[in-house]
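ok so I'm stuck.
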Amino acid sequence: MHRLPALPILKLTRYARRMRFVCALLCCLPFFLCRSAVTQQTSTPPTTGSQTQGNALTGRTLSRTLSGVIADADGALVPGAQVTLSSAGSETRSTVTDADGHFSFNDAPSGAFTLKITADGLQSASEQGMLNPDESLELLPIALQVATTNIDVEVSSQSQQEIAEQQIKQEEKQRLVGLIPNFYVTYDWKAAPLTTKQKYKLAVRSLVDPATFIIAAGFAGIEQADNEFSGYGQGAAGYGKRYGAGLADTSIGEMLGGAVLPSLFHQDPRYFYKGTGSIHSRILYALSTAVIARGDNGKWQPAYASVLGDFGSGAISNLYYPASNRNGAGLTIENGFIGIGTDALGNLLQEFVLKKISSGVKSFGKPQP
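replied:
not stuck anymore, here's the structure
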C-alpha cells in the first residue's frame, strides 16, 4: 500500500478539512514539481548507439551554446565525464559533466564540430554536428556503453535476506525535510524482496516514529477545532478520543497494508522509484502502481495487498468511530476507492517530488529504459 508518509489512510471521505494540515507540511511541493518537469526535459533516457549529425535540436535562440546530457546504457546520468569540443579553426575546449550529467559550452564556435566523451568504466564516444551562427543547440542525450575491458566484478556472499536488511536500514534514514518518515519507497530498482519478518519490522518502525504521534496529534487538534466526529464531545476527553482514533487508523493502515496482507500475498509494500523515461511514462507508471505491485518473486502482479488493505482499513474504522459518524457498507466501499486514489497521488509525489525534499536518500540501480 503506497501512501504518503506517516499520514492516516482512513476516514478518507472526511479528509477535506484534514488536508489543510497536510498542505501546510507540503506547501513547498509545487515548486519542486515544476522544477522536476523542467529538469526532465534534459534527462530523457538515451537511445543506444552513437548519435549522428542529424540529432534533434531544441532550437533555442540564445547566444551560441552547445550543450547536452551524458548517460550510461541504463539511463543513469554520468557526472564527471570529460567532454572535448573541437572545431576547425578554433582551439580545442574541454569540460566535465555536472552532478546531473549535463555539459555546456558557452560562445561555441559556429560550423562543424566534433565532441569526444570519455568516462571511467565506460566506452568513449564521439558526436558530430553543425552549429549555426546565433543558434543554441542542445543535443539528445548521449549514451556511453560499459567498457568491455577492466570491468571489476564484485562477488557477494550475502544472502538476499542480508542484502534486504541493509536496504531497510538505508530506507529508515529517508525523511521528508529531515523530519517526516519516508520509509516506504526504495530508490534501488533491483531491491531485494523483504521477508515476512522484515515487512513487520518496517511497519512497526514507522508506527513508533515520533513523527507519527505528532502528526496524529495535529489531526486530532484540527478535528477538535472543527467539532468533527461530534459524538466524541469536546474538552480533554474528546481530544483524547480523536487522538486515539487517529493513532488506531495509522496503526491499522500500517500493519494491514504494510505487513499482514503483503506477507499473505507475497507482495512488496514499497514504492519502487523509476526516475527515468519521459514524464508521460513516469506518470503512467506511478498511477498504475496503485493497482499493481511487485511480487516477492520480482514479477509485477495485481496489487491484492494494497487494494484489499484500502477496503479493509475502511471497514475496520467503522467499528470504533461514533455511531453518528458511521455510514455502514457504503462508507467502507467509498473509503476503499478513495484509498486507491490516495495511493495513486502518493505515488506521483514519490516519483516527481518527494525525493527532492528527502534526506538520507541513496540512489542505486535504474530500470531499463
